[in-house]
Amino acid sequence: MLEFTPDQQMIREEAQRFLREQSSSEAIRRVVDAGASHDAGLWASISRELGWCAMAIPEAFGGLGLGATEVVILMELTGARLACVPFWSTVCMAARLIEAAGSEAAKTKYLGAIAAGEMAVTVALGDLSAANPMSGTSVRAVKSADGYVLTGKVAQVIDLAAADLVIVPAQLEDGATALFALERDTGQVILPLKVIDGTRPVASLELASVAVSTTQRIDAGGLTDAAAQSALAFANLGLAAEQLGAAQGALDVTLAYVAERVQFGRTIASFQAIKHRCAELVVDIAEARSLVFGAAAGLGGMDAAESALEVSGARVLASDLQFRAAEEAIQLHGGVGFTWEYDPHLYFKRAQASAALLGSREAHLDRIAASVFADGGLK
Amino acid sequence: MLEFTPDQQMIREEAQRFLREQSSSEAIRRVVDAGASHDAGLWASISRELGWCAMAIPEAFGGLGLGATEVVILMELTGARLACVPFWSTVCMAARLIEAAGSEAAKTKYLGAIAAGEMAVTVALGDLSAANPMSGTSVRAVKSADGYVLTGKVAQVIDLAAADLVIVPAQLEDGATALFALERDTGQVILPLKVIDGTRPVASLELASVAVSTTQRIDAGGLTDAAAQSALAFANLGLAAEQLGAAQGALDVTLAYVAERVQFGRTIASFQAIKHRCAELVVDIAEARSLVFGAAAGLGGMDAAESALEVSGARVLASDLQFRAAEEAIQLHGGVGFTWEYDPHLYFKRAQASAALLGSREAHLDRIAASVFADGGLK
Amino acid sequence: MSGVEAFRTEVRDWMAIHLTGKFAELKFRGGSGEGDALPELRKEWERELAAGGWTCPGWAKEHGGRGLSVAEQIAFQEEYSRAGGPGRMGHIGEGLMGPTLIAFGTEEQKKRFLPGILSGTEFWCQGYSEPSAGSDFGNIKTRAKLDPVTGDWIVSGQKVWTSLAHLSDWIFVVARCEEGSIGRNGLIFLLMPLSQPDVEIHPIKQIGGGAEFNSVFFDGARAKAEDVVGQPGDGWKIAMALLGFERGISTLGQQMSFQQELDLIVEIARENGSDRSPAIRQRVAYAWTGLRAMRYLAMRVLSDDQSAEARREALTYKYQWSNWHRDLGRLAMDVLKMDANVVADDPRRERLQQMFLFARADTIYGGTNEIQLNIIAEQGLGMPKEPRGKL
Amino acid sequence: MSGVEAFRTEVRDWMAIHLTGKFAELKFRGGSGEGDALPELRKEWERELAAGGWTCPGWAKEHGGRGLSVAEQIAFQEEYSRAGGPGRMGHIGEGLMGPTLIAFGTEEQKKRFLPGILSGTEFWCQGYSEPSAGSDFGNIKTRAKLDPVTGDWIVSGQKVWTSLAHLSDWIFVVARCEEGSIGRNGLIFLLMPLSQPDVEIHPIKQIGGGAEFNSVFFDGARAKAEDVVGQPGDGWKIAMALLGFERGISTLGQQMSFQQELDLIVEIARENGSDRSPAIRQRVAYAWTGLRAMRYLAMRVLSDDQSAEARREALTYKYQWSNWHRDLGRLAMDVLKMDANVVADDPRRERLQQMFLFARADTIYGGTNEIQLNIIAEQGLGMPKEPRGKL
């Protein structure tokens, strides 16, 4: 059986209430219209007061030691409200990467800071749209007398301007990948980009011979493929949950609109074609939500490879769903659906941008097929 | 502008009236239930009395010398009524292949017989589901003292049991492909197959060292690739038209049913979801019909390669459409939709069987992509 | 090994020993689309199951069952399907009729009917749908008139989509017992023996050639006074409760059989080269994904979560599995390419062909797609109800 | 060379000479989603066109046009688009207002208004939709009251989705002139200057950041007595006729621009490696196929075929192109991958991004998808009409 524990249920209800109030349409638009890096007040509440960043961090490092399910609950809800906070970057990308690949010192320092809500962290992935973005970095790290010199550009880093720390995977001279942690203003150049989806800011990162100390190298003897895959599975799971949530959010907005809008003397909610399309979204939400939470329950328990396949499947379902829910939101809003004033376009832009992250639909299905056919994929 | 000439309009209206009467549900079921090779009476009318087989055959060989459009008109209508006759095999496959690749003697003899309605002809394509089925034959022709000896098996030949003549592409010892014409009972073994789609009978062909005379070799110095492609384009165009027609037929059956069937005190045609789904089929029919007739108008005029791409596109649209129209027919018929007694299953089985013929959806799109990207396709 | 795992092993062992010999022929048979296959042998198999104590294992012990937990029932269904256990002739009795009698029947009714179900010797079928009341269940026209002399009910009318009626002993019938009543009111729930002169059963030939459904005609047929379940007028309530029993645990067994079908498709694709097609690979991967999601959805539906969201999503299950299965049928045929059209003596191909054809019924029986979407929109989302017409 | 081909060359040559210099900046600009771009220069371009005799080329010569045949008009549209001719500021005047005046206007109205349209100096916008009469055109609430002294009409109400109102000189307004009338009755068709005190224009910011649509508020604004088209009460008839003029030949020019967008997508895919993705290739090929089909559909729609089938299929054209275009937008973004999200100084990418966003409006304005499907089902297939509610 698959259901929330009473504690999880409580986390969920409180987070939902909180986000409905704090990540309102107006709050989102303040960030989007200003091109801001994030909603600083909301982030302070989430990270410091509510302690959401501590959920999945092991107790040994100051966290609550809860599982993937709690994180997925929160990701779904932040997605539903398009909350403009570096929560996914910090918790689903960075913290998990540090946990999987970091040295004990790095874990103590950074996981502790994240758990305490003192730090927003992101990861400078080489190619954000690649299914395996850890391996594609073009940043090079050359050993120096007292540390390393980092050189390279990363075209797009999510939440970079909001982050207190950026983890940079870089290729060492021997070809191995190391992880470097750069706090604010330590030589990197950050250029916020003008993006279509303003709810999730992106910036480019430039490292022009940036000297870093050996203590800034945070991996425990190189980033292994297993660690990278484990971190990536968690990032994808969190993203799938967020996408699922955004789909639910788009549907909620749409249901409210069609219940009010009158045409031909009827609410448009009374038109069967519209009912059926909303119902089909419910079907797809049920499907995606089941796989997201099923995969979350399996993560850690099940065979890691099989778990990663479920996560890939969850990404496929959630990406399809999120886009369709957003496009239906625009369509069923009619004329106002493509105006700036109503919310569907926010969901829509987020949907396209999210679908492009961490592997296309096709790439995730290819991965599943390679396993189902047990042939390693088409060459 | 793209419209029928008054003559074409007349051909269309008369054929439609004729087929509605002669290829009724009962008539189709007589063939299907008996596992018969074809509806012999209907075929006699079509080929001898109405002269449909003469339409596209050049006047020099006793035909009417009309174009692809007339054939496509007839193919669409035979498709709409699932007419159990070897019309497509004879006119769209065999006659065109003879015209494209045959010797003058063969054209005179066989095109004349086809135009006169004296002969049903089919082609023993190597792999019916291949996009290029001419090249895949496993039949071998070995030169003998006074002719050739043919050996090999062809798994599935459409309308073989109904055909008076079968054209067999066979590989010569030098690797070239020749065409051989075998009349009934000249050494070949024909085994009718039990098929799901009983409206288009299929049989296997076995040639165990069948001796044929040199006059039975009908190609003019080997089957060239250009001739094969030209014949194939015509076969695919005819098939697309037939599929389009079958989709229209399935929709017609469905519209009649939903207008009568009452549930919840309303005809089910009054439910908006059902209206919209029928309307979507009309959209797709309009799309497919436009491309089918547009491609027919272009065939012969336009660049052959571009024309073949349009035909591939028409196959894609028509295959998608036919299947969807048939599945909607079953679904919108509700309980009776999956019974033997009502017609939707006939359209449905035909849809799946037709989609598998002469190249999958994917293969046709690959061909178009190779041209659009001008890269010869992915390897 | 957990208790459930031990139990799972017990089922697996039992099946390995018993689904052999003459019963080996039944493996993977009698499923959707061929529910009427090998009926006598399958009835014998029901008695074999009964002898092993495997009929009605989810019923409480006091009623003759094993009182299995939900987790154990799931394990049973999964292992039964995994072993190729044939389609259950006793399904209606075990899954619907028994639970309904346990809930609403008199002591005397339980005593008379439960043993036949438990022992695999009496088979039941259902009399719900009518020609003009397919999705519109409230439009039932079959009449039941009280015979004032005997207290029996005299039934006239027609039921359709009665699965396996021609192989069953009893039918339960929902009929209109109050003259002039409409909709949900005035219905009665009757138990009727099929072997009586005024009942005629006409098989309905299906798309795949089989005939597991029937039309059942009643022309003054008789239900005994003591064979009314509940009170006259309670028919709707009891029928709805009965349908409620249908949802649930058997879906996990069904999913096992879906997985087998998907495995077959993969196997054939590897053999015939369809596995080199990128589009086929993507579709197979997508099917795999959908099946995983369905598995977790089923587990959520079977959980105790009573939130509005959980209840709404539970409404989607039928739509989900039926459409998934329907699409799997097409995928199977596309993988088979030209072979899809030819009926040959290849049990794998035949299984997929039958599945392809009969899966077309999945989205229709038990509430069409359209009805499911109405229900999800209206009950799940609270959207306005479709108005009833006046034709 | 056929006459049409010669004509085609003439257009091509003219464009090559004139769409240069300061006008070069206009190439491929001012299309969907940025109809408000570079307005002054585009108005100047309209005058350039007028000087070349290329405004209103399809109008009869007696009205100042060239009297082009349908084939020539298609050729003009295609060559104009192929050369990158900018979105036409004069489109409403040339395509809708002019033909309507020619058909229904008085001689005096023609004399006053046609020259400004022909010369590219007076620009028109349309006042149809209202906040509560989006798809429900019969629900128009804007009122026109006769001023008994002057014979003028005093207009109060709100119009929305008025494209380019803020850049136009005149608006035509459909308003209710008979107190208490409902639906199609009691409407009047008025011509009104926008620069008057009781008209306010509020741009509506769109999904892509542009604002080519407006809300126009009338608060006792005035239409002169002589600026009524037809009789008071004829508003519906004239409005419908006007909409009829909209369909047609410009679609071929639109298709040329679709082809350019598809070409851009192919070009970028080849550059960034998306062309190695089997799924992207299939989608590109499918888009190519749809565009071909649309081209032939447009040619059938423009033919003289008046059969029921041809008329039914003509109803599908709007649904077809708008959905095709909408899907093309998504394909473009998927080809761009991560770059799709970043606004950079790359005109190709920017064009596709704007197209992606604004194509979302394609399936909404001019009759939503849902309205189109209703029309196809009801008018094309004769299925029952949706009942009107009473809210």
TrEMBL record, chains A, B:
Q: Which superkingdom? A: Bacteria
Q: What InterPro entries does the record point to?
A: Acyl-CoA_Oxase/DH_mid-dom_sf, AcylCo_DH-like_C, AcylCo_DH/oxidase_C, AcylCoA_DH/ox_N, AcylCoA_DH/ox_N_sf, AcylCoA_DH/oxidase_NM_dom_sf
- Family matches, as SUPFAM superfamilies: Acyl-CoA dehydrogenase C-terminal domain-like (SSF47203), Acyl-CoA dehydrogenase NM domain-like (SSF56645)
Could you tell me which residue ranges the Acyl-CoA dehydrogenase/oxidase N-terminal domain spans?
Answer: 5-118
- Asked if the record carries the keyword Flavoprotein, the reply is yes
Span of domain Acyl-CoA dehydrogenase/oxidase C-terminal: 227-372
**Pfam families the record matches:** Acyl-CoA_dh_1 (PF00441), Acyl-CoA_dh_N (PF02771)
Q: Per its Swiss-Prot or TrEMBL entry, what cofactor is needed?
A: FAD
Thylakoid found in the keyword field: no
* Keyword set, alphabetical order: FAD, Flavoprotein, Oxidoreductase
Instruction: Give the family this protein belongs to, as stated in its UniProt record.
Output: Belongs to the acyl-CoA dehydrogenase family.
Q: What is the protein's given name?
A: Acyl-CoA/acyl-ACP dehydrogenase
Q: To which species is this protein native?
A: Aminobacter carboxidus
From TrEMBL, chains C, D:
Gene3D superfamilies the record matches: Acyl-CoA dehydrogenase/oxidase, N-terminal domain, Butyryl-CoA Dehydrogenase, subunit A, domain 2, Butyryl-CoA Dehydrogenase, subunit A, domain 3
Domain (Acyl-CoA oxidase/dehydrogenase middle): residue spans on this chain: 125-218
Query: What are the Acyl-CoA dehydrogenase/oxidase N-terminal domain coordinates in residue numbering?
Result: 5-120
- All residue ranges annotated as the Acyl-CoA dehydrogenase/oxidase C-terminal domain in the record: 233-379
Keyword annotations of the record: FAD, Flavoprotein, Oxidoreductase
Domain of life, per UniProt, equals Bacteria
Q: Which cofactor does it need?
A: FAD
Q: Does the keyword ATP-binding apply?
A: no
The similarity comment for this entry is: Belongs to the acyl-CoA dehydrogenase family.
Name assigned to this protein: Acyl-CoA dehydrogenase family protein
Q: Give the taxonomic lineage as stored in the record.
A: Bacteria, Pseudomonadati, Pseudomonadota, Alphaproteobacteria, Hyphomicrobiales
